[in-house]
Amino acid sequence: MAMENVIVYDPECASAPSHRMLCLPENMLRSMEKGQSRGGQPLAHTCCHQNRDDALTPAFLQLLTHRRPTSKTIMAIANFLTASDITSAINACKAKDSFNPSVFFKTIGLSKKTPAEIETVFKILDQDKSGYIEQDELQLFLQNFSKGARPLTAAETRAFLMEGDSDGDGKIGWDEFSALVKSS
């Protein structure tokens, strides 16, 4: 079984744009997610300094160690959303820049669910359990519903954030998420 490489983007990197991308073997990313180290240094630090000539930014380190959606996450969502609705919603936004949160929520039937069920989805999407869905979590939004789904593009992620972030703090809280879903 071939190991896939994962490309991670660091938007805060002050170097040339080519240095903002880092290609890692998936097994190394998984090791970093588990907090493993090599030679006393966190694996993320070691890897980055082998591949880049500048220091890690806080946002990049967070991206490297951020938990990606798992099969367990997808199963939790599938407990109250139908597989056919999820498939329809994912298929409707397969093309890049075709994602629309309101259409997605309506298609999967989330807008018809109880506040408790909507809150369950919010908690699943809030991967770092901060109480907010931040930009990096929004980028992986579709993958929470289907393992093979694509990440949102930068434009889709920004549009999603702008639509849901009513107080302008750069993240979507529970009240904002609930209002966005209900307006679908």
Structure description:
This protein is mainly α and 184 residues long. It has a domain at 67-183: Orthogonal Bundle (Recoverin, domain 1), CATH 1.10.238. The protein contains ten helices and six strands, in the order ββαββααααααβααβα. The strands form three sheets. It has a two-stranded antiparallel sheet. α5 runs antiparallel to α6 (101-108) and α7 (115-125) crosses α10 (174-182). The protein is globular, with a radius of gyration of 17 Å. Residues 1-22 and 37-67 have low confidence and may be disordered.
Keywords summarizing the entry:
184 residues, Parvalbumin, mainly alpha, 10 helices, calcium, 47% helix, disordered N terminus, single chain, Recoverin, domain 1, two-stranded antiparallel sheet, globular
CATH architecture of the domain at 67-183: Orthogonal Bundle
Task: Give the CATH H-level superfamily of the domain at 67-183.
Answer: EF-hand
Low-confidence stretches: 1-22, 37-67
Shape: globular
GO molecular function, one term: calcium ion binding
Function: In muscle, parvalbumin is thought to be involved in relaxation after contraction. It binds two calcium ions.
Keywords: Calcium, Metal-binding, Muscle protein, Repeat
Pfam families: EF-hand_7
